[in-house]
Design a protein that fits this description.
alpha+beta, 28 helices, six-stranded antiparallel β-sheet, globular
């Protein structure tokens, strides 16, 4: 696990040093550079596999004409290495997966990426062909940004690495801002800046002779399987077991994030099953009861007999972090669970260098309440419109605001926001902050004129087109994999964990497991209103029933209450009229109403306010700097 950066074209060694220095926290164990023929490669290393100097990067083949800077882990590298050794052409000097990638490319060219099973973002330069290749893993687990300025290709693990190069420019992309307000993040392939992009997952970019071309090396299929339910449970167990076992590979201490839910509980179960000693598990808890899951994490730990570490956090622990969030997030990301994710990562790093987590389970098995809500929409729309608008919606909109985590009042009001939206866009309105009517009120008229004809759902349209052969429910699952999971959940985990040099692995994102689950009938995943149906059946005799059958609960913080109490003055200051006017983008009177309605308890506007607070923090740190 590392950070990478580099360029082809204009620039020098000073640029290269600044780029990698900007993200050096991602890899504190070693730093390396290649500067040759206007090609720069740099890497900061978090040593996980082969801790010796032989694993130093950038790394080359024995002739020195193919060089690689690599971030991630290739879980099948030993098999690939054996395959290459049988050819009798390659002599390996290290025990690292990095070297295997180099010779895999030398033997198979660009088709090498489809042979790699893992999480990765890499930059490979072939001096024979004067060709730079950037590649990203199938599910977008590892980040990779790129841009072209002055005929120079610039790239890095994070946006700030690109901004450190003298040729890059910071020019706000208004379309991306519009999408951020809707999504709570900027969806791939755009970034918040013009001319800087995220490389799509399962894609490699070729830069050669001043020309850029992108190619896909994998595409998920939802082609239906005819496997029966009993056989499906058996195969699911085999694949999860294998996915966890592969991710236990490390030459450093390793542990498990344990939240108290079925996903992390399953990872802990299979990790303990495949370990010869007690595994280490880690959880954090909160003083506020509706946000604290520590009792459930402890129950799993006691049941599996793990070596458990737990820390209770006060509001002050979180509040001290919030004003500094923009230091970690160089592109706006309005997910308040970055706070507990950072605190859990920091706590865990005291004991281990690698942690396994449960990310991906909800997206694979339709685990979010929004999938239940999708079923309810059909019933709701059958109610006569006058009854809906004059009675049901009126009652729901008058419900008092609650400070509890995902309260019924909050969920019902969010349900109404998307209930009358187009089918393919409804889930984004449920998940995000500002729907179109609210953005029209928020954004100043002069700015809105530039945006109102733009399609803020173009990425969603693209993913629905890609999955056009699937049924609608499986299209939704694909959408979640390519939007919410990739651009919010995985970004949150990557930035927060790597800020403390902790590697986090996600067994549920093993691509063979993803392919298998995607082939199963949708009612194996959501049966009636029971989410994760087949997964719960699998884990029924492996975890306590109180864990298996728990309702979904997010990894949250009591933000609604904080914004009315401990964070009220700070929020008021961040979103003060002078600050908003200075930005020249938003209507302060609308923002002020959001604030006052929330402060007074008339409405729960914590999601919208947090989106705006993060924007202001980011703008002050990265746009005005």
């Amino acid at each position: 696990m590392c950070g990478i950066a580099g360029f082809v074209g204009q620039g020098n060694q000073e640029d290269l040093a600044k780029m990698i220095l900007a993200i050096e926290y991602r890899g504190p164990d070693d730093r390396g550079f290649l500067w040759r023929d206007n090609v720069g490669l740099a890497q900061c290393r978090l040593s996980i596999i082969d801790l010796t100097p032989a694993g130093h990067q950038p790394m080359s083949n024995h002739r020195g004409d193919i060089w690689l800077a690599f971030n991630g882990e290739i879980y099948n590298f030993q098999e690939l290495k054996s395959e290459l050794e049988r050819l009798g052409k390659y002599q390996f000097k290290s025990k690292s997966d990095t070297e295997v990638i180099i010779y895999l490319y030398e033997e198979f060219g660009e088709s090498a990426f489809s042979k790699m099973d893992g999480m990765f973002a890499l930059a490979l330069y072939d001096f024979r062909l004067k060709k730079m290749i950037l590649a990203r893993d199938r599910l977008g687990k590892k980040p990779l940004y790129w841009g072209i300025f002055n005929e120079t290709l610039i790239f890095g693990s994070e946006l700030k690495a690109i901004l450190a190069h003298r040729s890059s420019k910071k020019e706000l992309n208004l379309e991306s801002l519009n999408k951020y307000l809707l999504y709570d993040y900027v969806p791939t392939p755009q970034t918040i800046f013009k001319n800087i992009h995220k490389l799509e997952p399962a894609t490699y970019l070729v830069w050669q002779g001043g020309r850029m071309e992108k190619k896909r090396f994998w595409q998920l299929s939802f082609s239906p399987s005819k496997i029966n339910f009993k056989e499906a449970i058996g195969e699911l167990e085999r694949l999860i077991d294998n996915g966890v076992k592969e991710r236990l590979m490390a030459d450093v201490p390793l542990g498990i994030f344990l939240s108290g839910g079925i996903d992390s509980g399953a990872v802990a179960y299979f990790a303990q099953k495949n370990s010869g000693q007690k595994i280490k598990t880690f959880s954090i808890g909160f003083e506020e009861s509706s946000f604290d899951e520590s009792v459930y994490a402890r129950k799993i730990s006691d049941f599996l007999k793990t070596e458990h570490y737990h820390q209770v956090l006060t509001a002050k622990d979180s509040l001290d972090l919030i004003p500094n969030l923009a230091d970690f997030i160089d592109e706006p990301l309005a997910d308040p669970s970055v706070i507990p994710t950072y605190l859990l990562s920091k706590f865990t790093k005291n004991y281990v260098t690698v942690a396994l987590g449960g990310d991906g389970g909800d997206e694979l098995f339709a685990g979010y309440p929004t999938f239940q809500a999708e079923k309810l929409v059909g019933w709701y729309r059958k109610i006569p419109s006058p009854v809906r608008k004059l009675i049901i919606e009126k009652i729901i909109n008058q419900l008092p605001a609650s400070e509890k985590n995902f309260s019924w009042e909050f969920k019902l009001k969010k349900f109404l926001e998307g209930a009358n939206q187009k089918n393919q866009y409804r889930h984004q309105d449920w998940l995000g902050s500002f729907d179109r009517p609210n953005r029209e009120k928020l954004i100043l008229p002069g700015v809105w004129r530039e945006l109102k004809e733009k399609n803020e759902y173009e990425e969603i349209d693209g993913y629905f087109k890609e999955s056009g052969g699937f049924d609608f429910n499986n299209q939704l699952l694909y959408l979640y994999l390519r939007t919410y999971l990739m651009d919010q959940v995985l970004v949150k985990v990557d930035r927060m964990s790597m800020s403390v040099a902790l590697e986090v692995r996600a067994p549920f994102l093993d691509y063979q497991l993803v392919e298998f689950v995607s082939s199963l009938p949708f009612n194996y995943k959501l049966n009636g209103l029971t989410t994760k149906y087949i997964f719960k059946k699998l884990m029924a005799d492996k975890l306590p029933s109180s864990i298996v059958n728990r309702a979904k609960k997010g990894f949250g913080v009591p933000l609604a209450r904080w914004l009315k109490n401990e964070l009220k003055d700070w929020c008021d200051e961040i979103l003060a009229e002078a600050e908003i006017v200075k930005g020249g983008l938003f209507n302060f009177s609308f923002i002020n109403k959001l604030k006052q309605d929330h402060f007074s308890g008339r409405e729960d506007n914590h999601k919208k306010l947090w989106n705006l607070v993060i924007w202001q923090l980011w703008q002050n740190k990265w746009l005005r700097k």
